[in-house]
Amino acid sequence: MVGIFVDGKNVALDANGNVISINGPFFSGTSLIKESNTQFDGTTPRLTVDVALAESVTEHTLTIVVCDAGDGDLDTAVMLASLVACDGTNCGGGGGPAVTSWCGDGKLDVGELCDDGNKQGGDGCSATCALEAPAAVCGNGKVEAGEAGAMASAALVVPSAAQAADYQLDAQLFTPSAFFHDGFSTPRGQTDGGYPWSLGLVLDYQKNPVVLRRDKAESSEVLQSLVSHQVTANVMGSVRLMRWLSLGVAVPIIPLQAGNAIGPFAEPASFALGDVRLTPRLRLLTLADGKAHVAGTLGITLPTGKLFDRYTGRSGATVAPGLAGDVQLGDWTFTGGAAVVLASADQVANISISQRIDMRGAAI
Fold it and tell me: By three-state DSSP, how is residue 25 classified?
């Protein structure tokens, strides 16, 4: 005998309205399950039950029971094939697909922005599976909403719409060099490289460069991708102004970008322009009969990306003074450079993005 109880009422009935049992007509039907790779003999039909739920009740209980003979053999079971909920107008043939969103089951379903496996609010995911700012926990090493401190945090706290109104994130993680004779993205100490000018195009693709992540005590969970796909065409060129001075220019064009709008965070633009990069390079030293070079660099970015999108540039200009060099040893040329990127802070919720040290090296 089998029983399926929804809010305490048995809804598993046969064609005659009786409780399903081995002695009833339910097991004599022609629509039988004959699944492979199971221990069942194929004599059990599939049971489909539709139950209307009371709108005044916000939480419902589902209980499945099986009664077996007392012979000591556990040879009766119920397999749950699917569990689907719908919202009245979208029930099967009622005008649209059913909604299969079950908040609190730990899975990110349709209509949910998060699902942490419970229906309790205040932990970053509300009782209705919407994003929220979790309660601050003082002493956990993170600067959270409602706290002030000098320790930086890498965990993004979801801000309110007012807090997120002016955010700006630069998702351009790959910045190739504008000079043809450089090691792709690694600078050299030469200012000419034998070419008075150069022009090039470098394409790059990024998957999930910006995600919304929520840290738990035992794991880290990606809630959603703010930017899921980004294709960039880097149009670049350089010109030798003097034997000891050259200028590189890079214009990143984003012809394809996709992502999601999540809470206060906007959906990325499908087409955008990144921050334009200018790089004057001044040769300082030439050593070892021209086999080693040292140059001073001054990387400058203009905040053109923010005119198109919130994810393709900084909120202000940046200046990066640094040094670059190369040395030839046999058949190999070793290149490298270091620069200090000076920029005003970009604030996103509880994360501040400002200065950094950029170091690169290569062997060619």
Answer: helix
Give tens-digit pLDDT for 275-313.
999 999 999 999 878 889 999 999 999 999 999 998 899
Residue-range definition of the domain harbouring residue 29: 1-83
Map residue 209 onto helix, strand or coil.
Answer: strand
DSSP per residue, 214-251? EE-SS-EEEEEEEEEEEEEEEEEEEEEEETTEEEEEEE
Same domain, 79 and 227: no
pLDDT (tens digit per residue) in 34-76: 554 555 555 566 677 777 777 677 788 888 888 777 676 666 7
Cβ atoms of 87 and 74 closer than 8 Å: no
CA dist 208 and 174 (Å) reads 14
The one-letter amino acid at 194: G
What pTM did the predictor assign? Answer: 0.57
Nearest-angstrom CA–CA distance, 211 and 141: 22
Is 79 in the same domain as 202? no
Report yes or no on 350 lying in a domain. Answer: yes
CB within 8 Å of 330: residues ≥ 6 apart = none
